[in-house]
Amino acid sequence: MLDTDLPLAIDVVCDMLTGSVIREEDVDVERGAILEEIAMTEDDPGDCVHDLFAHTMFGDNPLGRPVLGTVDTVNALTADRIRRFYKKHYDPTHLVVACAGNIDHNKVVRQVRAAFEKAGAFKNLGIEPVAPRGGRRALRTAGRVELVGRRTEQAHVILGTPGLSRTDERRWALGVLNTALGGGMSSRLFQEVREKRGLAYSVYSYTSGFADCGLFGVYAGCRPSQVHDVLKI
Q: Which of 156, 186, 224, 230 yields a CA-CA distance of 20 to 30 A from 74?
């Protein structure tokens, strides 16, 4: 987008956020698409194992729930429920506006504020933005094993542990560790598990940092008969 088109972009985005119609027929169409996406994910054990790992770590906390939802929760959504949720949570005090490029910060702030004021989105001009949540979330740190049996050609395995939040000062060191351990084709895991032994095609490590907690995991997809060898490495 050209920098000269910034006012138009702000106006369009503001209109989307404050004037969405959310019609019942549109919700029905989108519900069908999401149900198909859930079915597609359920057919892919490589996706399901990540949902299982998150649920094992976070339990019933929202972070432990599948991003797509479930068949029951998606079927329960109505246009009215979405509108009420939207009206309650999608207001300027809960939004972050991010811009990058040839812009002036103060000018952007004035334009964004003017657009939302014009749309009548500011119910209370003196209200302060919602502060970021602090502290640390308690995770399930005791050793656990979760198994889901399926008749597939591969076993999909994740070994994981609590990680670091996205503001933890140690996250930079964890990023270096993650890269060395399983962040690419030259990583330790890739070389030892795949290149030297041919035990898996896909093997990697990853980190996920949230506001007050995080995850660190190692994934491998291999033949069921080779799971124990992969785990030993």
A: 156
